[in-house]
Structure formats: C-alpha cells, structure tokens
C-alpha cells in the first residue's frame, strides 16, 4: 500500500502562484510514477502532470506546460507541483496519485485550490 497526503492548497489571486506537495509513504516507489490530477466543480478529473520516480522524467497536460512544474525529492519521498500564473480556470481539487504498475491505483484525499479573479 501507498499512502499519499497532499498539502499546500489555498486561495490565491489570479496571476499568483502556489506550490502543492505530496508526501508518500508505504511501499517502495522506486519503479513508479507519481502524478497530479485535478477536478473542477461539475467536471471530470483531468490529468495535470506526472513524473517518473526513477529518473525524474516529467510529462504535462499540454495546456499547462510552461506554467506548472512537477518535481520529486527522492530523499523526502515528496512530489511537488509548482503552479504559476494561476487563473480562475485552475480552481479545482488537486489530487496526488501513485502508479506502481500501469495505472494510478493510489490516491490522496485532495487539496483545494481556489483562484480568485
């Protein structure tokens, strides 16, 4: 089992920045991917970014690349999401997830991000 705990959400004005952090514990993550997803009110959950734990290779949703940056700290077992130039459309609950195999099987409880105009 993998336990994931997100932190760092909150209220920010448009144009501002937030940094989310996900602390992972439990099974080894040496052969896994970690990802961030988000779900806005009335919408389906969508992919934001992911990072391969072994070598740090990252991929992003096309519309977010350049504003969002995902990074991991192997020593601390954390994965952060730096979000810049936020706009109200970024308002959502952000979830951290872990994939030990082919799909994301483990999820955090989510953290709310609200961007005011």
Summed up:
This protein is an all-beta fold and 117 residues long.
Describe this protein's structure.
It contains no helices and eleven strands. It has about 120 residues and is mainly beta.
Labels describing this entry:
four-stranded antiparallel β-sheet; 0% helix; 117 residues
Strand content: over 45%
Radius of gyration: 13 Å
Gap from first CA to last CA: 40 Å
Order of helices and strands: EEEEEEEEEEE
Specify the biggest β-sheet. Answer: 7 strands, mixed
Tally the beta strands.
11
Strand-helix topology:
Layout: E1 2-7, E2 10-13, E3 18-26, E4 33-39, E5 46-52, E6 58-60, E7 68-73, E8 78-83, E9 92-99, E10 106-107, E11 111-116
Parallel strand pairs: 2-11
Antiparallel strand pairs: 1-3, 3-8, 4-5, 4-9, 5-6, 7-8, 9-10, 9-11
């Amino acid at each position: 089992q993998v336990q994931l705990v997100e932190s760092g959400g909150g209220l920010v004005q448009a144009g501002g920045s937030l940094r989310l952090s996900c602390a992972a514990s439990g099974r080894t993550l040496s052969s896994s991917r970690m990802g961030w997803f988000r779900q806005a009110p009335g919408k389906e959950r969508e992919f934001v970014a992911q990072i391969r734990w072994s070598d740090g290779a990252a991929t992003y949703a096309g519309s977010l690349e350049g504003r969002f940056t995902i990074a991991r700290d192997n020593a601390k077992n954390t994965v952060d999401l730096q979000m810049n130039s936020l706009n109200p459309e970024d308002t959502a609950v952000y979830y951290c997830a872990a994939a030990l195999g082919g799909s994301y099987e483990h999820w955090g409880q989510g953290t709310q991000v609200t961007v005011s105009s």
